[in-house]
Amino acid sequence: MAIGHKNTIRRPTPEELLLIEFLAIKAKYPLAHEWQQGVWAEPTTDDKIGPIAIAMNNGEPVKCKPSHVISDCMFYDADNKGVAAYLLVDDDGCLCELDLWKGGEPETFSLPRSTDKFEDIPMGKSFKRWRTCTYLCS
Questions:
Q1: What is the DSSP letter of 80?
Q2: Which helix (H) or strand (E) holds 133?
Protein backbone atom coordinates (compact mmCIF):
# COMPACT_ATOMS: atom_id res chain seq x y z
CA MET A 1 0.00 0.00 0.00
CA ALA A 2 1.31 3.43 -0.91
CA ILE A 3 0.50 4.92 2.50
CA GLY A 4 2.64 2.48 4.47
CA HIS A 5 5.42 5.05 4.90
CA LYS A 6 3.39 7.09 7.40
CA ASN A 7 3.33 5.44 10.83
CA THR A 8 0.43 7.60 12.07
CA ILE A 9 -2.04 6.27 9.49
CA ARG A 10 -4.15 3.43 10.84
CA ARG A 11 -7.48 1.68 10.51
CA PRO A 12 -10.24 3.39 12.54
CA THR A 13 -11.22 1.73 15.80
CA PRO A 14 -14.58 -0.09 15.99
CA GLU A 15 -15.92 2.83 18.05
CA GLU A 16 -14.78 5.39 15.46
CA LEU A 17 -16.40 3.32 12.70
CA LEU A 18 -19.64 3.15 14.70
CA LEU A 19 -19.64 6.94 15.16
CA ILE A 20 -18.85 7.59 11.47
CA GLU A 21 -21.65 5.26 10.39
CA PHE A 22 -24.13 6.80 12.84
CA LEU A 23 -23.35 10.33 11.65
CA ALA A 24 -23.41 9.32 7.97
CA ILE A 25 -26.83 7.70 8.37
CA LYS A 26 -28.08 10.75 10.25
CA ALA A 27 -26.91 12.94 7.34
CA LYS A 28 -28.34 10.52 4.75
CA TYR A 29 -24.80 10.22 3.38
CA PRO A 30 -24.50 7.06 1.25
CA LEU A 31 -21.91 4.53 2.42
CA ALA A 32 -20.85 1.78 0.04
CA HIS A 33 -21.38 -1.88 0.93
CA GLU A 34 -18.47 -2.97 3.19
CA TRP A 35 -17.21 0.63 3.32
CA GLN A 36 -15.32 -0.16 6.53
CA GLN A 37 -12.84 -2.31 4.59
CA GLY A 38 -11.35 0.66 2.71
CA VAL A 39 -11.30 3.43 5.29
CA TRP A 40 -8.07 4.78 6.79
CA ALA A 41 -7.57 7.32 9.57
CA GLU A 42 -4.85 9.66 10.73
CA PRO A 43 -5.04 11.62 14.00
CA THR A 44 -5.01 15.39 13.49
CA THR A 45 -3.88 16.10 17.07
CA ASP A 46 -1.66 14.42 19.65
CA ASP A 47 -4.67 13.38 21.74
CA LYS A 48 -5.08 9.65 22.39
CA ILE A 49 -8.72 9.92 21.32
CA GLY A 50 -9.52 12.91 19.16
CA PRO A 51 -10.18 14.23 15.68
CA ILE A 52 -9.11 12.06 12.76
CA ALA A 53 -8.67 12.74 9.08
CA ILE A 54 -10.37 9.93 7.16
CA ALA A 55 -10.08 8.59 3.64
CA MET A 56 -12.34 6.14 1.87
CA ASN A 57 -11.55 3.55 -0.80
CA ASN A 58 -8.03 2.92 0.56
CA GLY A 59 -7.01 6.52 -0.08
CA GLU A 60 -4.57 8.45 2.07
CA PRO A 61 -6.07 10.73 4.75
CA VAL A 62 -5.27 14.40 4.22
CA LYS A 63 -5.16 16.65 7.25
CA CYS A 64 -6.69 20.12 7.06
CA LYS A 65 -8.65 19.86 3.84
CA PRO A 66 -11.26 22.53 3.17
CA SER A 67 -14.42 20.89 4.48
CA HIS A 68 -17.83 21.40 6.01
CA VAL A 69 -19.97 19.63 8.60
CA ILE A 70 -22.73 17.33 7.36
CA SER A 71 -23.76 15.77 10.66
CA ASP A 72 -23.22 16.07 14.38
CA CYS A 73 -24.13 14.48 17.68
CA MET A 74 -22.96 14.44 21.27
CA PHE A 75 -22.25 11.87 23.94
CA TYR A 76 -21.04 11.91 27.52
CA ASP A 77 -17.53 10.78 28.33
CA ALA A 78 -16.47 8.70 31.35
CA ASP A 79 -15.99 11.94 33.33
CA ASN A 80 -19.63 12.90 32.51
CA LYS A 81 -18.53 15.83 30.31
CA GLY A 82 -20.17 16.32 26.95
CA VAL A 83 -18.27 15.53 23.75
CA ALA A 84 -19.47 16.88 20.41
CA ALA A 85 -18.78 14.83 17.28
CA TYR A 86 -18.86 16.24 13.75
CA LEU A 87 -18.63 14.40 10.44
CA LEU A 88 -17.13 16.49 7.64
CA VAL A 89 -16.93 16.18 3.86
CA ASP A 90 -14.53 17.90 1.49
CA ASP A 91 -15.42 20.09 -1.49
CA ASP A 92 -15.97 16.95 -3.60
CA GLY A 93 -18.48 15.56 -1.07
CA CYS A 94 -16.12 12.82 0.19
CA LEU A 95 -15.85 12.01 3.89
CA CYS A 96 -12.64 13.58 5.17
CA GLU A 97 -12.80 14.09 8.95
CA LEU A 98 -14.38 12.94 12.16
CA ASP A 99 -13.95 15.83 14.57
CA LEU A 100 -14.37 15.52 18.34
CA TRP A 101 -14.60 18.48 20.66
CA LYS A 102 -14.85 18.44 24.43
CA GLY A 103 -15.45 21.70 26.32
CA GLY A 104 -12.43 23.02 28.16
CA GLU A 105 -10.18 20.75 26.08
CA PRO A 106 -9.82 17.92 28.62
CA GLU A 107 -8.86 14.52 27.26
CA THR A 108 -11.58 12.34 25.76
CA PHE A 109 -11.37 9.00 27.57
CA SER A 110 -13.47 6.75 25.36
CA LEU A 111 -15.99 6.60 22.53
CA PRO A 112 -19.34 4.86 23.03
CA ARG A 113 -19.67 1.26 21.92
CA SER A 114 -23.36 1.55 21.05
CA THR A 115 -25.42 4.12 19.21
CA ASP A 116 -27.89 4.54 22.07
CA LYS A 117 -25.31 6.80 23.76
CA PHE A 118 -25.39 9.32 20.89
CA GLU A 119 -27.74 12.30 21.21
CA ASP A 120 -28.62 15.32 19.14
CA ILE A 121 -26.83 18.47 20.21
CA PRO A 122 -29.56 20.58 21.87
CA MET A 123 -30.15 24.06 20.50
CA GLY A 124 -28.41 26.61 22.68
CA LYS A 125 -25.78 24.17 24.00
CA SER A 126 -22.28 25.56 23.78
CA PHE A 127 -20.88 22.76 21.60
CA LYS A 128 -19.52 24.95 18.85
CA ARG A 129 -16.64 24.18 16.54
CA TRP A 130 -14.28 26.82 17.87
CA ARG A 131 -11.27 25.24 16.25
CA THR A 132 -10.96 25.41 12.52
CA CYS A 133 -8.53 23.58 10.32
CA THR A 134 -6.70 26.83 9.69
CA TYR A 135 -6.14 27.23 13.43
CA LEU A 136 -5.05 23.61 13.91
CA CYS A 137 -2.57 23.71 11.03
CA SER A 138 -1.03 27.10 11.59
A1: S
A2: helix 133-137
Residue of 59, 122, 67, 61 whose CA lies nearest to 90 = 67
* Residue 136, Ramachandran bin (φ over 0: left; ψ between -120 and 50: alpha; else beta): alpha
3-state secondary structure 13-59: CHHHHHHHHHHHHHCCCCCCCCHHHHCEEEECCCCCCCCEEEECCCC
- Per-position b or e across 88-120, b if 16+ CB within 10 A of its CB: bbeeeeebbbbbbbbeeeeebeebbeeeeebee
Contact 47, 107 (CB under 8 A): yes
> CA-CA distance, 92 to 90, in Å (whole number)?
5
CB-based burial, 19-45: b 16+ in 10 Å, e otherwise: bbbbbbebeebeeeeebeeebbbbbbe
138 residues of the chain, pLDDT tens digit each = 444 446 889 999 999 999 999 999 999 999 999 999 999 999 988 877 888 999 999 999 998 889 999 999 999 998 889 999 999 999 999 999 999 998 776 788 999 999 999 999 987 554 444 333 333 333
